Amino acid sequence: MKAPAVLSGPKVAGFVTVLNRFARPWGAVLDDPRILVTAVLALLAAHAALHGFVFTGLPRDELESVYWGQGWALGYDVQQPPLHNWIALALMDVFGASPALFGLLRVATIGGLMLFLGLTARDMAGERPLAAILTVLGALTTVLLGLQIFLNLTHSLLLLAVVAFNLWSLSRLARTEPGVGLGAYLMVGFALGLGGLSKYSFALFALGLLAGVLAHPVLRTRFWDKRTLLALGLAVLIVLPHGLWMLLADHGGTGGIAGQMSEILKARSLPWTDRLGDILRTAWADPLAGVITPLVLVALAAPRVFVLRPFREEGSDPTRFWRRFLLVYLIVSLTLATLITLALGGSELRDHYLMPAALALPLWLGLRVSATAPDDKARARIGFALGSVALVLGIGLILALSLVRPMTCGRCLTDLPVTAWANALRGAGFESGTLIANDLDGGANLLSHFPGSTLLVPDLPPAPGGEAGTGTWAVVLDPRAPDQATDAVKAWVTGQGRTWPDDVPEVVAPVRGPFTDQRRSLSLVLIPPAP
Question: Kind and range of the H or E element at 213?
Answer without folding.
Answer: helix 202-215
